[in-house]
């Protein structure tokens, strides 16, 4: 565990970058420091590995004051990833990653094998291993940066805006890769970003800092979204806070109806008299085909002859309420089709059911 105990950093010119910061970073979790430019995120991060020394207070790593550990020893147990990856330009990719194991005295082959293993782990094509950094895209370089930070298998990883310089699509895939890696590795990660969406996606806990280096709130993402501590945090979270909260709420409380589906092979005459406006049409394997408007049903024939309206689906038990709502908005029926992991229809969440579930969410705010 990393513990900040009333940590202050005053730079030589008198700037107070961090002011009496106290917080704990639990082992094996991702803690994100987020906040506007100049709020002291980077300074806080760098005080952990002593690239910057605190003016007052203590940072304890598993109970030991980092100031009592000499920086090279300290940094051996702490991986560090920065924006633009910071790779050595004149070394091949594999050698960039093997540098730390090499410094730790591993022989050349063992260090190289470790580097190749890590490149694979971070999702990089091994053909890249013998290239130089300039021959890689920004996103690929960031992957190498992560592999390099993991090379000595440090228990702690510090990441300073590591994905800020890449486009949104690459950024999303790097974020997902990090979450996948973390599920395997369980590192203690401190991640700095100014992007609240990134913070909410990656953080087990999110520390929101305000300018002057004050901690405004430390909470898990659902709590942060439901109960911001003050106006500053509320504003920082942005206008669509309510919608984003739905991503953290499981769809399990959503009532499904089993009686709103009809096989495409059914005779129209068997469904004409239903009181419903819409029916979800499924194929022989129970997979959704679309929505049939009951009022537009022909006089005779099978449902297969009916023109179908578009539909949206969500995976029951895996998607959030936001996924269900999104699926409903993709269809003129206003209802969402729930499917199981194999894509078979599990039921229909009607507008009424969604309304009921959303009502419970709204009722939970401030509770
Ligand atoms: N070496 C320095 N000397 C004086 N002031 C500094 C120094 N380094 C940083 N600062 C100031 O300390 C404050 C916090 O800076 P820091 O880089 O930690 O913020 P940040 O939250 O990481 O910002 P950004 O998101 O813009 O990178 C800022 O006001 C900055 O200008």
UniProtKB/TrEMBL annotation:
It comes from the Bacteria. Keywords: ATP-binding, Nucleotide-binding, Transport. It holds the Pfam family ABC_tran. PROSITE patterns: ABC_TRANSPORTER_1, ABC_TRANSPORTER_2. InterPro entries: AAA+_ATPase, ABC_transporter-like_ATP-bd, ABC_transporter-like_CS, CBS_dom_sf, P-loop_NTPase. Belongs to the ABC transporter superfamily. One of its GO terms (molecular function) is ATP binding. SMART domains: AAA. This is Osmoprotectant transport system ATP-binding protein. The keyword Nucleotide-binding applies. Residues 2-237 form the ABC transporter domain. Gene3D superfamilies: P-loop containing nucleotide triphosphate hydrolases.
């Amino acid at each position: 565990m990393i513990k900040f105990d009333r940590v202050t950093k005053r730079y030589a010119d008198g700037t107070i970058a961090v002011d009496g910061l106290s917080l704990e970073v639990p082992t094996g979790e991702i803690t994100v420091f987020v906040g506007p430019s100049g709020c002291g995120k980077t300074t806080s991060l760098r005080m952990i590995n002593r690239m910057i020394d605190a003016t007052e207070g203590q940072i304890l790593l598993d109970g030991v004051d980092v100031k009592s550990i000499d920086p090279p020893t300290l940094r051996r147990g702490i991986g560090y990833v920065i924006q633009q990856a910071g790779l050595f330009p004149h070394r091949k990719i594999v050698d960039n990653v093997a540098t730390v194991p090499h410094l730790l005295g591993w022989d050349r082959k063992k260090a190289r094998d470790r580097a190749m293993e890590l490149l694979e782990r971070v999702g990089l094509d091994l053909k890249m291993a013998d290239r130089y950094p300039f021959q890689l895209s920004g996103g690929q370089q960031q992957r190498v940066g992560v592999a390099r930070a993991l090379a000595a298998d440090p228990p702690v990883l510090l990441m300073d805006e590591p994905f800020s310089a890449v486009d949104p699509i690459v950024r999303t895939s790097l974020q997902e890769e990090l979450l996948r890696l973390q599920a395997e590795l369980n590192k203690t990660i401190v991640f700095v970003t100014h992007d609240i969406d990134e913070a909410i996606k990656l953080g087990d806990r999110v520390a929101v800092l305000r300018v002057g280096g004050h901690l405004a709130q430390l909470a898990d993402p659902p709590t942060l979204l439901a109960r911001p501590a003050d106006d500053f945090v509320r504003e920082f979270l942005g206008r669509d806070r309510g919608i984003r909260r739905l991503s953290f709420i499981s769809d399990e409380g959503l009532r499904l109806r089993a009686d709103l589906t009809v096989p495409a092979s059914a005779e129209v005459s068997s469904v004409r008299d239903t009181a419903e406006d819409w029916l979800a049409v499924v194929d022989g394997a129970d997979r959704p085909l679309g929505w049939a408007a009951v009022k537009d049903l022909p006089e005779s024939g099978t449902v297969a002859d009916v023109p179908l309206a578009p539909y949206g689906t969500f995976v029951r038990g895996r998607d959030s309420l936001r996924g269900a709502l999104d699926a409903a908005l993709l269809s003129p029926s206003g209802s969402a089709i729930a499917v199981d992991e194999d894509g078979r229809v599990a039921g229909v969440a009607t507008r009424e059911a969604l309304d009921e579930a959303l009502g419970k969410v709204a009722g939970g705010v401030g509770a």
